[in-house]
What does this fold into?
Amino acid sequence: MLPVRHVAPATILRSLSSRRLINNIAAGHHRLRLPSSRLPLHHPVQLRHYARFTQDVPLEHVAAESKPKPPRERFNEANRARFLCPVPTCKYATHGFTAKTSLKRHVEALHGKEREYTLGELLKKIDAIPNMRMRRQPASSSETEIDATSEPWTQLDPPQESSPLTSILEAQESNERPKTTRRRRKVVDLEPQPVADTDAAPKPSPQTVPPPEEEAPTTISTLGQLLGALDDEVPSKPRTRRKRVTDTEAPPEVEHSSQASHQLSNTSEEQPPPAAQAKKRAGRPPKSTSKPIGTPPEQTPAKRRGRQPSDKPPQPEITADCVNTMHLQDALLHTCVWGRPEDITYQKARVLKRDMMRHADPKRVNIVSEKLCDDVLEYMKPGLLERHKGCDIIDISPGAGLWSRKLNDLLQPRRHVLVEEDYKLYEPFLKPLVEREGTKVIEPAWVIWKDLFEALGQEGVLPDQRVRMYEPHETPERNDSLLVVINMMSHARRKAKAKKMGTLPGMILYQLISSVKMQGLFQKYGLVRMLIWVDDSEKSQFLPKTVQRRKAAGIQAELVTEWIHEVAGTDGEPSKTYAYRRDNHINMEGMGTVLARMKEGGYKVPEGRESALMKSYLMLEKEGQVRTAGEQSPALATKFNLVQEELDKLKVTKKKEGTWSQRDHQEYLRNRWLTTQTVKHQTALGDWLAKLDELTELKLQVEAAEKENKRGTIARKRFETLQAELEKNWEDLDQPSRLRYLVARDNLRAFKRPAAVGPVLMWDRRQLEPLKVQPEEFYPACEGALLDIQPRALESLLRAKCEEGSRMYDQLDLIIRNMFLQPSAPIGPVAEGLWVGAGEGVLGKMRSIHDPALGGTPLKGLMGELNLRTLSRAQLVEFAEKWQQWPFKPTFSELVGRLGEAEAESAEGVNAVTGAGSILD
It folds into this structure.
């Protein structure tokens, strides 16, 4: 069989205008499928222009099109009439209005002041226009009877007659093909032979006229016959949208074979056909009905245009049992605070929302996944149940109450205080929990701390908790009899009004962490553990996962907390920006250490909650490919690793199919070049870090020889040579290479510490791996995280009182904020910039800065010295101790003034050490 060349109607002229295609058709190599005869063929001159090449070409291989559908019936509707403007020059003289009143308003507004036409005459002409009436015509007739009117602007366009081209194509059909939908086009495979008209005569019916007798077969032999028919072709009007058939109108395809059905069809206004047949789509066979003919159809309500009623079962109402059902999300939706459900009308939803918004916050997020609550509490059970069984719980913003109820079931608290500002909205959800013994609800605006603690201090709310104020020489103790639970998730970022405070949840989280050192807020009851649900974007400033993210807020959190664990969170990349990622070998080695701690502590990750990092480590461990950080070149995270693997597979596939283009090849070469450059950078970084370790060993040998009064000539000479080489190479490095080196060096130093000291980042000291959470487990859907914060007691040195009524932790806070304006600069020049003489008077006396056994380094300069973002908590406490002992330290007021000057310099973009703050920060 010859191959079929399917040419769409929109491209038929472009295809036929190719001489090569016409020659192939003439040679019999293709069979061309003509476009449908009922579709318009515009500009037939273009087709005749190429007829000279194929004047005598037989078209035996041309596949004919099926017979066009009979014209549809036109039905009587008042809105189908068009009242045209009687002014010939008006644009509404050709397409008018559907109502006579609209035409009158148009004439009065636009033509009332014209000189050629008086307004009275125009209105009389309009009043003389009778309303158009159309009667249903028999199915066999293609014309529509219209109550004629004498005015030309009230006539409808008569139906167009079939063109000569349509009759020629109809003569080629041998069998009547089934009707197809508008979106699908079928190709009929015909053998190269004359096509005869073998249409069978249709069965006689009361509504149709018997067709003529069967005619002789017709054969098309030349293209000129088709081109001649094109001369008489009348351009047809564009296809319009099919009129929607209502229940009172019957489609033209409905035919009845009995005399009773014929009588019913003649009286369709009194007895409408079934609705199932009236809604049948064009081109499909009529659906069979089980009801007898003549049975009146069931009355169905009219459907609104647009959104259709859903097939879902009716959703439950907001009742007291909603919290115990799987329809919690649907019940929240039925409050109309977050949207309108399908089974509630717009007017009713508007009233409900207006009433609810008076005492509801639409930006709040609720936990709606019962499995998430069960998995998280089962995961935390080893460290949560044994400490807080039977404690008091302060539950702030419980919302729908699913998380609060699950926590109540596990801990069996002595008292459970629900702090819900929007209690009127969530009362049906919280009612099962409120009815339990020991549960109490208070409704203050908890963001205002004064109102919250006044409500908590009322009689009978927390009778067993007392305020504990400790002196500087006393050590605060943990209070495991109290647990604070807060939900601060929001699906829209709320900016705080305070300057430089970021978002409102971030500001509240900062206040909760900072209250530990001042023994304020909940920490006045002791060191109280806090479980806080926050947005996933808020955790990075208090729980950084790389040294690039370690800012002043993260260091202050490390000073006052024993741990900050991310119990559950969104399983995404550590950072969307590649500049904030670190060596993948560090992540893998850290993951192995965390799994060992989890096994020792009895923590087990529920099935399906494994993070991507955990899956990667288990896969590499199974294959025996886990590498130790620092023993090989860093594995930098780039954008091109996965892309290159995908392009390699795509190249093989496309080359087999023959679709590999020049553009694909250029993209492939570009990614391969970028991958090669990344490997070169990794190799260069590995060499730099190896030479840095060698330089550190040589420096230690030189210092040991000096202590023993030995010369150490060989080690000193090698040290000086290597140091000069590195300094020369450092000067030749460009800015991106320097930045990559500093990031790789600082991340490795922060992770590879002696076992007695441990890693710098709290993330690398975590006891458990976060569980994977999906955004759909919250409503409205968002990326949330659960933070477990355990405060710690500050050293007595930091709680000591200083001059002017301040404490040492206040001064250390100012020092950290000042020095962290240049986080990647060496610690020595930054200390000198803080106050003159601090580099020698404070840092010179710190052992942990220079001793590698305590996390220090003996090297100096920008290339090898420690910077502030790699200082551990122990080193910061020692810095505060030496600062307190330094006799030339500034007063508290002078330190505050210096911080203001440093912030002004930082705002101008000037680095006090290098003069170009963007290079290192």
Summary: The chain is about 40% helix and 5% strand. The radius of gyration is 42 Å. The first helix runs from residue 12 to 16. The CA atoms of residues 133 and 147 lie 6 Å apart.
